[in-house]
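Summary for the funding panel

The consortium committed to producing paired sequence-structure records for every protein in the target list. Below we show the first two records in order, beginning with the earlier of the two.
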Amino acid sequence: MANRLASETSPYLIQHKDNPVDWYPWGDEALQRAAQEDKPIFLSIGYAACHWCHVMERESFEDPAVADLLNEHFVSIKVDREERPDLDAVYMEAVQLMTGQGGWPMSVFLTPDGIPFYGGTYFPPQERYGMPSFPRLVTAVAEAWTERRDEVLGQGKQLLDHLGGLAGLQAGTEIPGDEVLERAVSSLEAAFDPEWGGFGGAPKFPQPATLDLLLRVAARPQGRRLGTDADGLAMVERTLDAMASGGMFDQLRGGFARYSVDRTWTVPHFEKMLYDNAQLIRTYSRAWRRTNQARYMEVVEATIGWLVDEMQDPTGGFYSSLDADSEGEEGKFYVWSVDEVRAVAGTDADAAIELWGFTDEGNFEGRNIPVFTGREVDADALERARAALLEVRTQRVRPATDTKILTAWNALTVSAIGEAAIVFDRPDWSRLAQDTLEHLLKTMRVDGRLMRSFARRTDTSVDIRHLAYCEDYAFVLEACLVLLETTSDLRWLDEALWAADETIRLFSDPIAGGFFTTGNDAETLITRSKDLIDNAQPAANSVLALEFQRLGLITGDGRYQDEAEKILRLLHGPMSRSPSAFSHLLAAVDFFIGDPVEIVVVGRPSANDSRTLLETVYSSHRANRVVLMVDPDRPAPDIPLLSDKRMLDDRATAYVCRRGVCRNPVTSAEDLSSELAGV
C-alpha cells in the first residue's frame, strides 16, 4: 500500500511512495503527529538525481525491518531539497556543525518541534566505511530519546544556539576592493591543474562562476589589471577544452554531467542537472566571444539542442535533472563496447572509434564513455555514426527524468540562452528564452506571488506548490535584464522592476543588510537563513548584488544601488577571508569598483546600422556595462538614462555614458570603438 508521498508532485518523493516506511511530506500533519505522540522526527533530505539517495533507499528504506524500526519510534519525513531549499539549508548547516561535512542523502534526527540533535548523510545497512549501520543508529537514537531525554534536548539547544551564524552577520562599513580579487585569483592559480584544467584534484566540479570571474578579470582594460601574474584566460581555456573533451560532456547528444570522479574529466558522475548546463552554456558562450574557438560554439549548440529536445516540457519550461542510474547501474545508458559501435555504425564505425576514443579495454568498467580526441575524421561518416548510435541509445532504458519545473533554475536557463542568443546572433534562441520566461511568469506568478515548483500530473492537470524563495526572484530579475538587452523589448524592464521591488519587500533584512532565503509571508522555521555562499549555483545574494547595480544604472533609482552595496558590506569580512567561496559575488565587486558604463543605442532593432553598433559593443569584451537598445518608433520609459536620446540623421546612434553623464553621440562603429576605449 502506498504511503502519503503518493499524493506529492516531486518525482523524488513519489519514488518513495511504495516504501514500507510510513513517510510524510514536510507539513503540519507530520509535525502535529510528532508533537501529539511525543516522537522524534527522522528527516531524510535528497533529490531525484542523487545516486547515494537511491542506494540508501534500496538498502534501508525498502527493508521491512528498518521500516518497522522507523515506524515504531519516529515520525519519518521525506523532503526534496530542490523544492525546499529553505529546509535543506537549515538542516545542512546543522549536519555540518555536528559532523564537519555534509551531503545527500541527508539524515537528521529532530525533536518534535524541529530542533536537530543528531545527523549525518548516507548510512549503510551494515557497519562499514567506519560508519555505524543504519538499523543500529536508529535503535541507538530511539533509546537516547527514551532514556536520556534531557541530554538529547540539551544537545539540540546547544546546536540551535549556533545555527544561523552567517545569517546573523552584521554589515561592515567598507566594500571590498581589488585586494580581494587578487587574493581570489592567486588562490585559484595555486589550485589550478595545468595539465587537465579545473581546480584541485578528483572529484572535479566545473565551477562555471569561477571561470566567469577569471574571464571577467582577463577582460579588464590595461589600466585596471590586477597585481598578479596569473593568466586567467589560459586557465579558463584549459579547463573548458578539457571538460568538452572528456566524458563529462555527452559527446553524442550534448549536455554536461554533474562532475567528474577523476582529474581528467573522463568518468563523470552521470546525472545531468539543469542549473549546471545553464551556467556552462553561458560560460562557453562568453569564452567563445573572447577566443572565437569553434569547439565552444559546438558545445553551446549541442547543449541547447539537448535541452530543447530532451528536457523541455511540451507547454514550456525545462525539467530539473536526469538521473545517473538506469536499470540499477550508474552510467549504463551512456557506455559502449567497441563491438557494439561496429555493429551499430557499420562502415562508419571507424570515424566514431577514432574521434570518440573507443578502445577494446574501455575507460569505464570495461566499456567506453565517449570522449573527444580531436582527430581528423570524415564528417559525413561521423554524423551517420552519431545518428545510428543515438537511435540505439534511445531504445535503452533511459535514466529517470525529474520533471518538476523550478522557477530559479528555469530563469537561470533563460539568462544563459538569452546571452548565447546575443553572442551567436541566434534569433531562435532569443525567441526560446522569451517564450520560456513568458511561460514561467504566466504559470508561476499566482495572485502576484511567485511560486517555486510546477509539476504536471496529467496532460490537463498541473500542480504548483511552495512560495518562491529569494533565489527564484533573484534569477527572474537577472533573466528580465538579460532579455531587456537581448530583445530591446522594454516590457522586460517593467518585469525587472516588479521582481526587484518584490524581492526587497519580501526578503530584505533592513537591519544587517542582505536578503533572507524565505519571504516574510513564509512558514517560520527554527532559524531564518540567508543564501550567501556561491556553491553549485550562485547564491541569491550574489545575484542580487550584481543585478541591483545593473538595474540602478538603467533606471537611475539609487534604492537598488543601495541594496547592492549593503550586500557587499555585509559580506566584506567573509569574502576577504575566503574569496574562493564567493566567485559570483566577486563579479559584483568588480562591477562596483570597475566604474561601469551605460551604453544606449537608439535605432531600429532589425536594421543593419543598429546591429553593427551593438556588435561593436559586444566585441569590446567589456564586462562592466549595461546596454539598452531603444526603438525610436516605440514609446520609451521615463528614466534619466534615455532623456534626450535620439537618432542622428536617421541613423542608429550610440551614447556611451558613465553614471548618467554621456559622451558625444556617435553613428559609426569606428567612432563607437574610440568612445569605448576612452572610458
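The next record, for a separate protein in the list, is shown here:
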Amino acid sequence: MTATLNPLYRFDTLVVGAANRLAFTASKAVAESPGTVYNPLFIYARPGLGKTHLLMGIGHAARAINPRLTVEYLTLDEFVESFHAAVAAGQGEAYRRRFSDVDLLLVDDVQFLTHRREMQAELLRLSDALQTTNRQIVLTSDRPPAEIEALDERLIRRFAGGLVIDIAAPDYETRVAILRRKAEERRASFGEGVLEAVGSLVIDNVRELLGALNRLVAFQAVSDTPLKPAQARALAGGAELVEAKPEKAGKTARNAEKTEKPKKEPRAEGLDEFSDFLSEVSATVAQQVDSWRTKVAAAILRWEGEGFSTARLEALLQQEMTTDPEQVLRQFESDVHRLQALHAEASELAPSLAGSSAFRDPEDIAGAEAVTQRAREGAHPPPAPLPIWRLDDLFESPGNRMALQAARAIAGEPASRYNPLVIVGASGVGKTHLLHALGNALAPRVKGPVACLSAHEFTGELIEAIDRDAVPAWRARYRGAAAFLLDDVHLVAEKDRTQDELFVLFNFLIESGRQMVFTSALPLAEMKAVEGRLRTRLEGGLVVDLPAPEREVRQQVVERSLQAKVGTVDPDLAAYVGSRPVESIRAVHGLLQRILNAAEAQGGPPTVTLAREVLEGSQPKPPRKTSTRSSGVVAAAGGNKSREKIVWDWPDVGDRIVEEWR
C-alpha cells in the first residue's frame, strides 16, 4: 500500500536554516538511498518545527527517484488503531506482512508509545524485520527516545543504532525567509520592514509564524492602507512577545547521536526457502521469455501473494506480443490501489467488511464500489449546521470585518485560503451564529456533508461510540465529511481521548484538503490544558477575534427583531436599546425581550418611554386598581363563590396580576 502524502510537504517547499540543516541533509540522504544510511532515522523536535514536513518530504523524494518504491506514512495512533482492527478481524498476520513488505516506512508521533507495551513489541519486531531486509524506517517524536516514558530499552538501542537528530527553533534569518516564501506563495506583498518586524519577534514555532502571516494577509485584505511594521508586530502578538536578536547558526544535533551505523552488506546467503523459490522462478522465466514477460510474471507473483486476482495479467502472458505492457501493469496497480482504498473505507464504516473478497478482484471495481456505497449509506451522517443562520443575516462592522471577510473567502474557495479558521470571542458575541452560517454557505460548494457540532457533542458521541464498541464507524462518520466545523474547541481541555481523536481527524482532513473551522471562548495561548500538538495546529491557520458587538450592530439587531416580532420598527426605540452597554448579542436580545414582555402585559406597543422604565428603573406611575366582577361558579369545598379580579399596574416591570378569591 502506498500512503497519500501531503503534496505541499516536499523538500523544495521547506525553508532550510541553521536549525534544521542537519536534519534536512540526513533526510535527503535517506531518500536517495533508503535502507543503506541512517537506518533507522529518528527526528525529534517540539510541535510545529517541521518534523512531519521532513517526513513526508522523504517519501516524495524517494518516490520521485524510484517510482516503484512502496512508501507508507502513518501516525503512531493510526498504526495502533489499524493493528487493533486487524487483530479483531482475524487479520493480524496479514497486517504484519503489509508493513514488512514496505520499502520505506514513515511513522509520525512515536512519543505516544508511552506505556503501550504491546505496540512497542510490534514496532521492535517490525524495525528488526525492515532492517534485516535493508528496508528503511524513519520516525519522528516531540522528544528524544530516552525521554519517552516507559519505552523499551531495546527500542532505545535500535534507534540509537541509526541516527537520532533534533530540529531546533528557527533563527531570525530563517523566520524571515519562511515569511517571505509563504507570502510569495500566497501572492501577498507587504511594505518594507513588515515581515522583518514579525520575524524579529520570538515566535519559535513555524505554525504560529504562519498563523501570524495569515493575520497579516487577512488584515491587509480589509484595510485601506498598507500595513506598517509596528502594526504588523502588534497583529502578530508583539505586545506579548519580546524582540529577538538574530541568532548565530549553531550545531543542532547531539554529538553522541551523530555516529552513523555501519552500512549493512546486502545478503548473499541465508535466503529463506520462499526467497530461493522466487529467485529460481525469476531466473527460469528470464531464460524462456522476453523481458516484458519477466516483469508481468513478477507482478503476478507479487499480487497473488497479497491475495488479489491476477486474471488480467495471466491473460497478458498468453499473448505473443503486446504493444505496451508497462501501461497494462500501471493500470493494474492503480486498480489494486483503488481496491485497497475502498477496502480501508468500507472497513472503517463496517468492521465486518474487513478482509472481504469483494475487494480482491481488480476486474470488479464496480462491485467493490457498490459494497462501499452500501456501507456509506448504512452510516449515520454527521450533524449539519442549523439552517436558520445565514451569512447574509450578519451585520458587518469595523470590529467583526476581518472575521466576516475570512468567512466569505472560505465560503468562496473552501480549503484554499484559511485552513483552519479559528474564531475567538467571549460568550454570546455570535461565534456559533457565524459558525453555522459559514457551514450553510459551504454546503452547496463542497461534495459531501458538512459536519457542524459543539465540542461537548463531539466528546459525547465519542463516549457513546466507545460504549457501543463502534469507534471505527464513528471515526468514518467524520472522515467522510467535506468540511468540519467545531464550536467551543476549548472544551476539549483535559479530555485526553477526545484530543487524541481530534488530532488524528485534524491531520486526516487537512491532508485530504477539507475545510475546518473552530470557535473558542479562550485565546489559544490560554488553552493550557489542550495538548501542544493540537494547539499548534490550530495556531497554524488564521486566528481572528470576534469582539463585543458595536453600537451600530446592536441597533441593527434590535431593528430586525422588532420587524420580526412586532411588525414595525420604532427607530428611537432601536437607537435607545442599541446604545445600552452590553457585551453580547445575546444580552441585546435579552433587553429587548424584557421590553416586549412589559408592553404585552400593558396591552400597548413597545416605546422608548417604556424601555427607559424597564431598563433604567424610572419612577413608576402610581398603581391603579381596577375591579371587574364576573359571574360564574368555582368549585370549592365550601360551595359556590363569585370572584373579583384585581389588577395592579406597575409600568416599570409590566402588569402584575393578583387574583383574590372570595
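Regarding this second record: The radius of gyration is 33 Å. The longest strand covers residues 643-650.
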